[in-house]
């Protein structure tokens, strides 16, 4: 249970800080945005470690036979979402177009949430 809560808390923190850093980069307040960006990067490490532990625990659980493909897709979509968070902020920081990265982020985030909370057994639905 600890790693599930740690994982959800860390990605939620990263996403909230991302939504705060976005307008700061757009408005040109880069010093504050850079500080937030580094805090987000620290949460990436926690997301990746806790997600890896959860992936390992799923692989050891009885439900692996039934849900293995969905767990792997969720892990890949979650990793892709983290990469798109970083890529989007990096493009914003450089003043480059970031719309494509944002679309990928939203799609991967949605896939991750649907699989994590709606389909897999350790989410909301049994």
From TrEMBL:
Sorted alphabetically, the keyword list is: Cell membrane, Membrane, Transmembrane, Transmembrane helix
Pfam family, any one: DUF1516
Tagged with keyword Membrane? yes
Mark the transmembrane ranges.
6-26, 38-59, 71-89, 101-122
Q: Tell me the InterPro entries matching this sequence.
A: UPF0344
Q: What is this protein called?
A: Uncharacterized protein
* Lineage start: Bacteria, Bacillati, Bacillota, Bacilli, Bacillales
